[in-house]
Amino acid sequence: MGSERFGSFGLATPPARRAIPADEAIALLKSGACKLDSLIGYGNGRSYGDSCQNDAGTVVDMRPLNRIRSFNAETGVIEADAGVLLCDIIAHSAPYGFFPAVVPGTQFVTLGGAIANDVHGKNHHRRGTFGCHVEAFTLLRSDGRTYRCSDAENVRLFHATIGGMGLTGLILSASIRLMRVPSLDIVEKVTRFRDLGEFFDLAGAADQANEYAVAWIDQLAGGHARGRGLLFTGNHAEHGSHAALQAGGRLSVAVQPPFNVLNRPFLTVFNAAYRWKKGRSSDARHAGYQGFFFPLDGVRDWNRLYGPHGLFQHQSVVPEADARRTVPALLEVARRAGQGSFLTVLKRFGDVRSPALLSFPRPGYTLTLDFPNSGERTLKLLAELDHITVEAGGAVNPYKDARMGAETFAASFPQWQRLEALRDPAFMSSFWARTAKKLGVRRDIAEAAE
Fold first, then answer.
1. CATH topology for the 186-410 domain
2. Overall CATH class of domain 68-180
3. Among 217, 221, 222, 171, which residue's Cα sits nearest to residue 198?
4. Contact present, 57 and 205 (Cβ < 8 Å)
5. Domain boundaries for CATH 3.30.70.2520 within the chain
6. Residues of the chain with CATH 3.30.465.10
7. Distance in angstroms (rounded) separating the CA atoms of residues 243 and 378
8. What are the 10-residue block averages of pLDDT along the chain, 450 residues in total?
9. Model-level pTM?
């Protein structure tokens, strides 16, 4: 199978060298003939980094496994193959008054990918991560066996696979609990804030009063305007539509421009226009669910606007007690570096515990920044953001990453060895080879030297 379609959404890393369809991988796994570190599952390619890549091996295209198996219109439990997209789950369940309890920033992720990355959304303070709503799944490992995993069966594999970035085997299908909603429409309110201090003053009360809350930051603003932005809050409308819209917008970036379109002059104008348009009224208004949850899905292949070298996304989380110092420091470092972030999002994580062994969300504040790939200049900035985050006792998101070092990963996820102990020996990703595997080699060398 050609590998040209199996790249990272960030476009900053090379696409997969080799790819095989799911049925071929399933037959290979059942035969027990898989080589060490040879496979990694690939969903719909919406990860920004290399957690869905295996530069030394083969990626498995899970998209052909796309059947919805059953849906209980009373309980909201849906069972589907791992390659089913979130937009298909929404379309299937919406007429019955259900919606996924947790959705990330795009509806074009697979069910298996959402579980493997334990994705989060704008309502972590109420619903936790995607993994909190997983009932069970089937997992195929290289010993040829298929395991049913839940809180009652194969419990260690259940907790390791949620948030395990595809390293414990192939998720074949899963059952998840959806959330009953009065409608798909959202009653949205936009509140302007002058600086980050004002945002932090608003954030806790916004979370208590609303199902959804997220802030946009004008990352390029300096002087007295530094840290200004908009706080978006939302709740499902009591009276509104139950009809899912066709996924994907009419607009698309048909060709790859030879340079970064989202440069600093463009972003300066864009930020000013966006702040004016979105923040001109503080009155509540009805918004469609796609515009509220998935605004970037309206332009297909928008990542191409970053040019041929792609982008790096940096998402960090820092403890709430240190956020008022650390978040401004992160933004200031990026601003001083002269690199504009097209997407700058700040939100508060709650204390709803994930069942995952490794899960990025934890109580505190999470900041997301997108930067065009300008080579060493950008890598140096990202390393500085890593350092500030780790020094504050925070973590860097692995499934958004394409370059973090082993030390940053270990500081962010000190329990990484527990996942390594449950990793299927046939499964490896470029991310895991760059971080955990390197840490393991160093540990072995140190033990041999003692």
1. Alpha-Beta Plaits (3.30.70)
2. alpha beta
3. 217
4. no
5. 186-410
6. 68-180
7. 43
8. 75 93 98 96 95 96 97 98 98 97 97 98 98 98 98 98 98 98 97 96 97 95 90 96 78 76 80 84 90 92 91 97 97 91 94 97 98 95 98 97 97 97 98 94 55
9. 0.95
